[in-house]
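User: For my dataset I need records formatted as: sequence, then structure tokens, nothing else. Please produce one.
Assistant:
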Amino acid sequence: MDLKYSTKILLVLTGLTVCLAVPICDRDKKNSPQEEVNFKLSISSRRNDTGNWITQVQVDKGESKQPSRERDLTVDVKQTTTTCNCTSEVLLVEAEIISPPLKPGEDYTLLSDLGYYKLYTTPKSWSQANSICNKDGAHLIILNSEKEAQAVNQMFRGLSKSSDMTSKDHLFAGFHDQLHEGHFITIYGEALETTGYTKWSDPSEPNNKNGDANCGSVHFNGGLSDVPCSWKLAFVCEQELWE
């Protein structure tokens, strides 16, 4: 999904230069990688000799934390004139900055109409798995539909339990209730109910077994489960489809 940032600025009569330094978080309501994109937006407007408004927009990107995964930016500018309180002429400038999504990381597989996925079979704790996905420009998987759950279910096939793997019946997923017991949120701080998929693996779930099951997982039957964050599990990283 493209990352978009829009700003509307009123420039009155004589012309004005506006400079904004804007940090924006690359994610949409559904899910996308948590990556901050920094840039400086400068908008300058003046009248030319014929009385028409001329607007110039300049975008300067800040330094990227991951230069090898740096994004390109495109800018779309619209300007109109109107009146303020029926007396003063006002110039309205709207600048939209669009950043295309990152290309999928190495060894990510495209699943039709769903997104890009990578199964990591080396067991990690929940926080370690989350960090690895973020470094990929992806995120721990968040299920949004039964179709996606079925696709993930196929990833369990051939998954063998290693000596350091707590369970081969679960994969870590991008939700938890570490902040408030029983209130599950995604890695983006949104209620689990907003994902569109809240099917649990068993009627007893979530059960906070042993009092420390605070991190989310996907069970091999496609349902959700809460497990200890310290468990060592395989996990799936997800990256959204390009629009």
